[in-house]
Amino acid sequence: MLDGLFGKKTAMFEAALHGLQERGEAIAENLANLDTPSYKARRVAFEEQMQFVRTHRAADLAATTPAHFRLGPRSAFEVRPVESRDRSSTLRNDGNNVDVDVEMTALAKNQLSYSYVAELTKRQFEGLKSVIRGS
């Protein structure tokens, strides 16, 4: 619905904010479980799906039958953050693999990204507001 009303940019901003929020929650969970034995760090990814939406037009990849596989989301509204666990490493003898330095860096980067996308979204709506008001 937003895609028709406000354009594809707004949908991309919404998907990015949702993905960044999910990532922030995962980082917070990782930090909260810093001392939990056998805890494996949680990761959230969504950028590849967003890139796919940006570079592929839905018409180019239209499925002609329900049996066709979809390569990726057709629009930003279909972008879903993908959660995974980093089970490939162990930093300590208790099996926990959360590295506080890595998590704090990821948290700072995520907060900056979220603030940036929120500011872009705000500017998008301010532009729409000025058009509606005629100023």
Description:
With 135 residues, this protein is mainly α. It has one domain (2-65, 98-133). 54% of the residues lie in helices and 6% in strands. The protein is built from four helices and two strands. Strands 1-2 form a two-stranded antiparallel sheet. The longest helix is centred in the C-terminal third of the chain and has 34 residues, at 100-133. The radius of gyration is 19 Å and the shape is flat. The mean pLDDT is 82.
List the helices and strands and how they pair.
Blueprint: H1 2-6, H2 8-32, E1 42-45, H3 47-55, E2 82-85, H4 100-133
Antiparallel strand pairs: 1-2
| Count of distinct strands | 2
Beta content comes to 5-15%
Task: Give me the side-by-side strand order of the main sheet.
Answer: 1-2
State the shape. Answer: flat
On the 0 to 100 scale, the average pLDDT is 82
Structural class by helix and strand composition: mainly alpha
Number of domains: 1
Q: What is the first-to-last residue Cα distance?
A: 26 Å
Q: How helix-rich are the residues, as a percent range?
A: 40-55%
Radius of gyration: 19 Å
Give me the number of helical elements.
4
Helices and strands, in order, run as HHEHEH
Major sheet = 2 strands, antiparallel
Low-confidence stretches: none
TL;DR?
The chain has 4 helices and 2 strands, in the order ααβαβα. With about 140 residues, the chain is mainly alpha-helical.
